[in-house]
Hints:
- The structure holds 2 protein chains of 2 kinds.
- Chain A is mostly helical.
- Helix content of chain A is about 70%, strand content about 0%.
- In chain A, a hairpin with a 4-residue loop joins strand 1 and strand 2.
- Chain B is flat, with a radius of gyration of 21 Å.
- The relative contact order of chain B is 0.18.
- In chain B, strand 1 and strand 2 (about 20-30) form a beta hairpin.
- Chain B has helices spanning about 30-45, 70; strands at about 10-15, 20-30, 50-55.
- The chains are: A mainly alpha, B alpha+beta.
- The structure holds fe (ii) ion (2 copies).
- The site of one fe (ii) ion has 5 residues of chain A, from helix 6 and helix 7.
Amino acid sequence: MNIVDLEHEFMKRIKADQKIEPKDWMPEKYRQTLIRQIAQHAHSEIVGMLPEANYISRAPTLRRKAALLAKIQDEAGHGLYLYCAAETLGVDRDTLLDELHSGKAKYSSIFNYPTLTWADMGAIGWLVDGAAILNQVPLCKCSFGPYARAMVRVCKEESFHQRQGYEILLTLCNGSEEQKKMAQDAVNRWWWPSMMMFGPSDENSKHSAYSMETGIKKFSNDELRQRFVDQTKPQADILGVTLPDKDLKFDESSGHWKYGEIDWEEFNNVIQGNGPCNKIRLKHRREAWEKGAWVRDAASAYAAKKALKNSESKQVA
Amino acid sequence: MDKKSWPLWEVFIRSKHGLNHKHVGSLHAADAQMAIENSRDVYTRRMEGISIWVVESKNITASDPNQQEAMFEPAVDKIYRHPTFYNLPDELEHM
Ligand SMILES: [Fe+2]
Ligand SMILES: [Fe+2]
């Protein structure tokens, strides 16, 4: 088959909602788009562990600490599922990690904001994981099999993340004046960065059209963002916190909450590497990787030695 | 030491309901023992399983996706292999 026929067959399968598997023929652009997106997603999972890791030793109770630890461990697992999915496309994991550590690869801009108080653990679970869930649920049906399957596992695990965060805020909101203030302050700081997690607005999203066409993406950035606002506003009311958007108001005719202008300059700045925590996040990632080198080397040496012993004893017998 | 030396393993888990081991994903590990231990940490944190198999990915032979039609099409028209193919009276129970 020539390339035109192959492309035609490929699009036919996409339209028929059939999954594309790693060994199937696929256009180079599809492969590259997926590698970029899955790698970015994987990086986001493991960089996302860092802002919360700060609070493992500062959790107010053992119950909160156990839950936070479990959540962060889940995020490590999410990273692993995603790196494995990316690897099925022919890149190896060390290359992907090198690209993260050199600053070449991107990850979600949200993790470049600082976590200043315990209430931030609540706001992250509620808003950041909440936004992540909205992005991830449609990916369970994405056209690339390994990515879709990884997302099914991820989504199963995410729901507790959001609920534990919301419970943290609920407790603070039912507490003292000071605790309520703490909760409101965290929501004020995390609201807009969470809104930015859905990416540039539709008219400025350069990768969206191709991803929609090939079934990687099912909903546009703005559609998902709208869903997020509609879902979050009533949840904020239950907590008794306000969302820091003076333009937020319910639109009777569309049935949606209309929201104010997003500061895209800030978004682009953080993406370019100039957010408040870009440098420290990468520094911690690099340190973790370098300090773990001896463990990786030792495990390899041990495995090699055992394999050698095994083959020797087989020769004797 | 070559940092690319950890092979890839495919992980299979049997749930406590006693069904077949089912493929759940993959991971890198230096050896089989480590692959089992890491599988436990990654894939059974919520009581998903009571038994784990790992096999090095390179040892798996897969059918050729280009041969999909030749491989699987012949089964399509053999509907007489399914119980519903047979016309039996409604009053017949438990068969
Ligand atoms: Fe996650
Ligand atoms: Fe999460």
